[in-house]
Amino acid sequence: xxxxxxxxxxxxxxxxxxxxxxxxxxxxxxxxxxxxxxxxxxxxxxxxxxxxxxxxxxxxxxxxxxxxxxxxxxxxxxxxxxxxxxxxxxxxxxxxxxxxxxxxxxxxxxxxxxxxxxxxxxxxxxxxxxxxxxxxxxxxxxxxxxxxxxxxxxxxxxxxxxxxxxxxxxxxxxxxxxxxxxxxxxxxxxxxxxxxxxxxxxxxxxxxxxxxxxxxxxxxxxxxxxxxxxxxxxxxxxxxxxxxxxxxxxxxxxxxxxxxxxxxxxxxxxxxxxxxxxxxxxxxxxxxxxxxxxxxxxxxxxxxxxxxxxxxxxxxxxxxxxxxxxxxxxxxxxxxxxxxxxxxxxxxxxxxxxxxxxxxxxxxxxxxxxxxxxxxxxxxxxxxxxxxxxxxxxxxxxxxxxxxxxxxxxxxxxxxxxxxxxxxxxxxxxxxxxxxxxxxxxxxxxxxxxxxxxxxxxxxxxxxxxxxxxxxxxxxxxxxxxxxxxxxxxxxxxxxxxxxxxxxxxxxxxxxxxxxxxxxxxxxxxxxxxxxxxxxxxxxxxxxxxxxxxxxxxxxxx
Length: 558
Hints:
Layout: E1 16-22, E2 31-36, E3 39-43, E4 59-61, H1 65-68, E5 74-78, H2 84-87, H3 90-94, E6 102-104, H4 106-118, E7 125-127, E8 133-136, E9 139-145, E10 154-160, E11 163-167, H5 185-194, E12 198-202, H6 218-228, E13 233-236, H7 242-254, E14 258-261, H8 264-275, H9 289-292, E15 300-304, H10 314-319, E16 332-335, H11 344-356, E17 360-362, H12 377-387, E18 391-395, H13 399-411, E19 426-431, E20 434-440, E21 446-449, E22 452-453, H14 458-469, E23 472-479, E24 486-495, H15 508-520, H16 526-545, E25 550-557
Parallel strand pairs: 3-5, 5-6, 6-7, 11-12, 12-18, 13-15, 13-16, 14-15, 16-17, 23-25
Antiparallel strand pairs: 1-2, 1-19, 2-3, 4-21, 8-9, 9-10, 10-11, 19-20, 21-22, 23-24
Helix pairs in contact: 4-8, 6-7, 12-13, 15-16
């Protein structure tokens, strides 16, 4: 990695082409396309959340380039579960073609329908459950119940004339799930007996030895933390983590506390989950946030978003004193989620900020308040031994996770040549049980910045980083059109410098000398003169301040 870019050949009849569009080499943007005989099926369509080096970006989408001109050939989008990294980009794809059918479980469809309502899109949907079979054009689908950190998750088996696929989505093998819904290993075993030509498996925890602890082990810890909290308790989690919210409701109820939900997405998702019966709300526990202020501090729990340090989420706003709830001495804050790679610094800043305000912060590092939703190495090995797939394509993870997953497959007996360490845009063709890499597409990140989608480039982000880290200098000079001599200026203004603008007085003669030299050489083009100013100023600032700010020179003829 990265692989050289080259176009795949024309797809042969009765051959299944698999292209991971997102989710390989990253935690998020999960999306894979399957094509056979001119028809396309998509599994998942998620977003990636920006990191610190992507200032101003709200979301990152998969690159839809391979399917943009094939929209009419798409028969449907299978959504394995309702987390943002699997459904968050659906509105942006449906803006290209609104009637692509969405296929998923009841809770998953309810979450995406609520999201699409905000985008004013009413989707076509097909609700499915574990054990159900559906025929969508040349794709015969079978859905398998899997256990994850959100209810109603599904794996999908895809049968075609080119071969058979099992795509796990996100899963783990919790043997004591809160909702009693196990990963259906009997179905996995039956599919393995029938023969799986290529297995696409969740890699997120492939480098973690052993087995992921049970969700049930968290309940008593939450109950104990809440019981010992002297004042208010604020729990931060993902807005779609129904199981964790259930445990918080139960723990609060056991300690005689009420619960107020904070954050638009949290309120929306939990309202849906409760209406559909996935969230069992104890009588009288939930209270509207507006009325929560009247409840004594030792009788309230706030359930909020912001566990990843997102700047606009509730928890970050509390730290910045930009929220109605003012965190203070004696308050307890529980971060009930794992750290998504890339978010560590933002989360630790939130933790430090809360502690400075006097809060007791409980997180995965100092208490068992979260377990992962993904299968660890021991669980993956079990699944490989049950399925005995011919080929393996690890998906959903950063590169180290994909490598770890591939190594587990090889340990279980899958030939190394049949495990594919791919990246976004790798093209794999499957025919008669034989899989091979036949192309590598050049796919990039698509940035959402406010209402702008796909217009922001990596060069724009580099400019933003320079502005944030190095500062900005504008230089305005008016020159005589006839002889190129300086009439007015240079006028220099800086932003992001501690020093007064007067420190640039030493630079002005150097700029004037450079312009005089250029004029003497017959240079009259204002762009060329501006470049000369930029070079001189850049060298001087670098030597003087050891900085490389953005320099914007403007040379005007008069």
